[in-house]
Amino acid sequence: MLNTFQHQTNRVGDTMLAASRQVWLAGLGAAAVTRDWAEKEASGVFRTLVREGAAVESRAIRFGGDQVESSMTKANTVWKHTRTTVEKVVRIYADTAVGIVSQSLPALLPALKPALTVTAPKRRNAQRQPRKSKAALTGKNTKRASRTMKSTSKR
Q1: pLDDT by residue (tens digit) across 41-63?
Q2: Domain spans of the chain?
Q3: Could you tell me the CA-to-CA distances from 14 to 8, 18, 24, 82 in Å, in that order?
């Protein structure tokens, strides 16, 4: 019984070893076939893929550019319309304000005349303190200068 058990174990191990070797050989074969294909046929396929990619890219850029251009055109149109509308409204309000002022100002001028005249404020006749002479001012400055000189020399 022991012999049959060992015999079956060896057969399973051989089968697993053969299977892993077959996987290895299949990978090696795939690499060789790919190498041959890349040398002979792949360059044409690669060039075709590059051409197709360039065509798709140019179509996408053209489409995107057209969309941006139409958006810019719409934005410029809206901006011009807004600008003219604002200018018209401001002109209307300015004309209205000029009309109101020109109608009401002559009637208001007599009432505003006293407020428009500027009078100088009156000075009080308070006692003034006499101004100090230049000699007194220079005396203070010399005292300050000598104090500053003394403090810097101590340092």
Answers
A1: 777 877 888 899 899 888 888 88
A2: 7-40
A3: 10, 6, 15, 87
